[in-house]
Specification:
Helix content is 51%, strand content 14%. With 182 residues, the protein is α/β, with parallel strands linked by helices. Residues 14-134 form the Up-regulator of cell proliferation-like domain.
């Protein structure tokens, strides 16, 4: 859903409101030291009853449950599609176990945030487009979505890898011939 949010106070208030209202909190961190300036915020999120997923840029691990509802995922030297799939699965698992549901409409109930979705034409058009996209994608697996919206992607990838193998095979053959000439 597309929405413009105008912050009336400092970003700390926004962070507090959004973390209170969220169903799952996801945090991106290089690594976590006790002396880190954000350590207290992360510690509060960790103590909270809501699910927390920490993405560590300097860690190579797959999904690891630190304790119930508290997960960590390493990003270092990992394939983006693998990490995206793990993150999607982890969020879905957390949401299925959570009783709290985030509703964007509830954000406007806070006096510190003004939601101008109803007054702005761009927001209304964006919301309608997002809802239309979601209705198309709902209840479809990622492979189905790729096949229906990117029908030639697999064929092009196959052609590219075939051409790439031919080029490298040709270069390897040339190198062998150069060596044998010397």
């Amino acid at each position: 859903m597309l929405i413009k949010i105008k912050i009336l106070h400092h970003n700390i208030v926004t962070l507090q409101i959004l973390t209170e209202m969220s169903s799952v909190n996801v945090v991106l961190l290089p690594r976590l030291d006790k002396n880190d300036r954000h350590a207290a915020k992360i510690q509060n999120l960790y103590k909270d009853r809501k699910p927390l997923i920490c993405l560590f840029t300097e860690d190579e691990s797959t999904v690891t449950e630190m304790k119930r509802g508290k997960l960590k995922i390493g990003l270092k030297d990992r394939n983006q599609s693998d990490v995206s799939e793990e993150l999607r699965r982890a969020i879905n698992d957390c949401l299925s176990e959570s009783s709290h549901i985030f509703r964007l409409a509830d954000v406007s109930k806070h006096s510190d945030i003004r939601v101008d979705e109803e007054d702005d034409d761009d927001c209304r058009r964006g919301r309608a487009a997002a809802q239309q996209m979601m209705s198309l994608l709902e209840k479809k697996h990622l492979t189905e979505i790729k096949e229906s919206f990117l029908p030639h992607q697999e064929k092009l990838r196959h052609q590219w890898s075939q051409k790439n193998r031919e080029i490298h095979r040709y270069q390897a053959h040339e190198t062998e011939m150069d060596i044998s000439r010397k």
